[in-house]
Amino acid sequence: MIRRGLKNFLLVVFIIVAVFYVLSLRTLPEEIAYGASFSKFHSDELQLDWKKTYLAILDDLKVKNLRLSAHWPMVEPEEGKFNFNELDYQMNEARRRGALVILAVGRRLPGWPECHEPDWVSRSSPTVSLKQERILKYIETVVNRYKDYENIKYWQVENEPYLAFFSRSLCGELDEEFLQKEIDLVHGLDQARQVLLTSSGEFDPWFQTYKRTDVFGSSAYLYVWWKTGPFRYPITPGFFRIKQNLVDLVYGKKPKVLIELSTEPWLRQPIVGTPVEILLDRMGIDKFSEMISFASKTGFDAQYLWGVEWWYYMKTKQGHTEFWERARELFSK
């Protein structure tokens, strides 16, 4: 009986391993289109001249695929009074150079604290329905302003909306019905372009996000810093190939993008003021190169790096040019 039980156990293990092996099989792209996320918000956090940083990304690194964010506080600093100075500059400079843009809109956009609201929202303490009306109005205004730009590639709506546990205290619980309203609004305003929704590569199973979107985007983080200390997720590129194959099987194939490939240190305090030794320990050039190599085996043919402002910070403020130089090589391919 014991021997038979052991055989059955080993058979089950073999079947499970075989299934996951088959699911991990995915043709890798011959070429990868690299891009980068840029945020004035993050540049300001690093005490950089955001325009110089942005132009260096365009003219020195020659990035041709960008993800930009229309952070609500930047776009509508006062209720009903919109400011497009910064975003117009970013969009126009990208257009002049033929750079394609994924433009992100919504309350939850890239960068801590995840959910970004103008000060006037908290001061006025609107009801949930009234706040949602204002969010929709802001999204409508942004989309209408830029939908005639020929270099808009996709509209990103919100950022990792199903990652509810992350920054729950600031973002609250996800309202799926409202998320769908945002998606429908963007589709209605610009029927020529697809909507991109994003999801956590490590935590989210992707199904909920994938079924709602035209184009799917995943993040990829390996080195994080939780309350327990620095940590590397015990995953391989096959983990991402398996997840892609699973959502393809359930919902059919859709365009997919590695939208947020982490190439800056994950810290528990602001980057500015953190000793350079800690910065390099959490994201040295060895880990930077590992992230690029890891991502190249995930099966995504479009990959947007996260951390370009930090590379510029390290180059101009800390005298470490290695990240910038490695990125230049990458974008020259």
Automatic annotation (TrEMBL):
Keyword Hydrolase part of the UniProt annotation: yes
Top-level taxonomic group: Bacteria
Domain GH10 positions: 71-161
Ranges annotated as spanning the membrane: none
Keywords: Carbohydrate metabolism, Hydrolase, Polysaccharide degradation
Pfam families: Glyco_hydro_10
GO molecular function, one term: hydrolase activity, hydrolyzing O-glycosyl compounds
GO biological process terms, semicolon-separated: polysaccharide catabolic process
Protein's UniProt name: GH10 domain-containing protein
Organism: Candidatus Yanofskybacteria bacterium RIFCSPHIGHO2_01_FULL_44_17
